[in-house]
Protein 1
Amino acid sequence: VVLGLCACAISGAITPVFSFVLSHLFYEVSLGAQDVNAINTFGGIVLAIAAADGIFMGTKYFVLETAAMFWVTKMRNTAFRRVLAQDKAWFDRSENSGARLVQIIIKDGDDARRLIAIVLGQAVVVITMFSVGLIWALVSGWQLTLVGFAIAPVFAATMVIQTNLVTKFETRNKRAREEVAKGYYDVRLALGR
């Protein structure tokens, strides 16, 4: 996970560097391509940065997905062993039905895997990208950067609204999956009897 998060941080830091070098390339081209040597240099740097970004992006997905899958598999094995160690009375309770156990061990495990594989990695990428870009902007021209902070409350409010909506729909989706799973196992039990 730490290796994957390092790849995420590098991938996040590469994006502002890429945009800076690409803007210099565009500037040189917009001058009428007078300095071919500068265009070739910036073009090579842009290609190298793009290749490095692709490598680190692929590395972050591979490493985090692999680590998350190992973690979920370990958690499922531990949960399965603990479920099998319970006595019969534990299984007779409605909260420990087969549908509920499958929901918790399998479906909730997949949600937890996504948390490590996708959410954690993307959070590190965004935080790193924002930090590097902000520091770079403050060093380059702090006055204009401070003007840019004026839209920060709008951005924060938008993110809060989006997070609340996503949470609401994820909760509704989880409840619907639980109902479908319960219905499936109820029908299966009825047909088996």
Protein 2
Amino acid sequence: TPLAPRPAQPYIRLDDGQPWVEGRRCTACDARTAAVHLACPACGARDSIETYRAPTTGKLHAYSIVRRSYPGVPVPFVSAIIDLDDGLTLKGNLINVAAEPEALPVGMPVRMVFGDAMGRTDKDGASYVAFFFEPAA
């Protein structure tokens, strides 16, 4: 029996096999993050963090075209910073777009998609689910 895929990041959740990103929002100042903190990293409030399902749409904030990498990692690829529509910012690879500056306007609408994390597996052979971003139609 194949093993169920595992999330590639601790904030990726799998509900009945459907992946989504869990964000965290400070109820005191409305700051948003995906990382777990004991207190809000923006205002320092404690016991003010609530989790929520992050949106899957946003805009390209910044990017880097990676042309050299480790063996087994195909290049070029686009490493991007994405501002989601609710204010959460995530870093991920931008796929299904040319790795050329003219194809990557800052502010370009994108959507989050989930897929296999480049064929990587854990020691037991379970695959990983990762998120990527692609231009929104």
